[in-house]
Design brief:
- A hairpin with a 3-residue loop joins strand 10 and strand 11.
- Helix 6 packs across helix 8.
- Strands 2-1-3-4-5 form a 5-stranded parallel beta sheet, with helices on both faces. It has a 4-stranded antiparallel beta sheet with strand order 6-7-8-9, with helices on one face. It has a two-stranded antiparallel sheet with strand order 10-11.
- By secondary structure, it is of the alpha/beta class.
- The protein contains 8 helices and 11 strands.
- It folds into 2 domains: 122 residues, Response regulator (Rossmann fold, 3-Layer(aba) Sandwich), CATH 3.40.50.2300; 100 residues, Winged helix-like DNA-binding domain superfamily/Winged helix DNA-binding domain (Arc Repressor Mutant, subunit A), CATH 1.10.10.10.
- It binds calcium ion.
Length: 231
Amino acid sequence: MKPVILVVEDETALVRLLRYNLDKEGFEVLEATDGEEALLILSERRIDLVLLDWMLPSVSGIEICRQIRRRNETRNLPVIMLTARGEEGDRIRGLNAGADDYIPKPFSYDELMARIHAVLRRIRPALTEEKLNFADLEMNVATHRVTRDREALRLGPTEFRLLRFLMEHPRRVFDRNQLIDAVWGHDIYVDARTVDVHIRRLRKALNGEGKPDLIRTVRSAGYALDAPEMA
Ligand code: CA
C-alpha cells in the first residue's frame, strides 16, 4: 500500500497540481480545503504525512499544526508547511508550532518531493517497508495492516502503537509506566489503568475465536507479548 499524504490547501489549482505530482511519485492523496475538514480526516484516516498550507480560511495552518501536535493520535505525524509568506520569522513560527519542515511558495516539485522523502525517512524510517512478525501475527508498519493467521485485524491507533511496541520487543515484560512512555510519550499524563483498558482492547482484537492469547499478564509486573504454546 502507498503512503498517504493529506494535502490541506484551499487553492484548487494548486491542489490539482500537488495531487498530480504526488500521485506520480507513488503517494495516495487525500484533500482538505480547510482546517475542520483536515482534522476530521485525521481522526478517521491513517495519514503518513500532512502538507499544510499556512493561509487557510477560518483556522490557520499554524493553528492546525498545533492541534495536530496536541492530539495523541497525531502528535508524531510528519507535517510540512507550505506558505507564500517567506519571511524568516514565519519559518520559525511554523517550526515552533511543530512543523517538521517549511517550504516557501513558489517551490519546485523536485524540491517538494525531496523534502517529503527526507521528512518521511527521518521521522518514519519504518515507512521504507518494514514488517514485524510474531507467532502468527504480522504487522506491516508502513501500511498499518495487521493480520493474525493471515486474517486482517482491526485495531485502534493506540492499540496499534501498543502492539507495534510489543512486537518490537517480543517476550519482554513491560510495566505500565514503560508502556506509557513508549506508547503515549513521557510528557503527558496517562493513568496506569488506561494501559489496562487498551491492553484489554488489544487482546480482544487479537484473540479471535479459540486462538491462544498472545498477551501475557505478569502479576504486579506488567505485560508481555508471548506465545509459549506456539514457540
Ligand atoms: Ca491557501
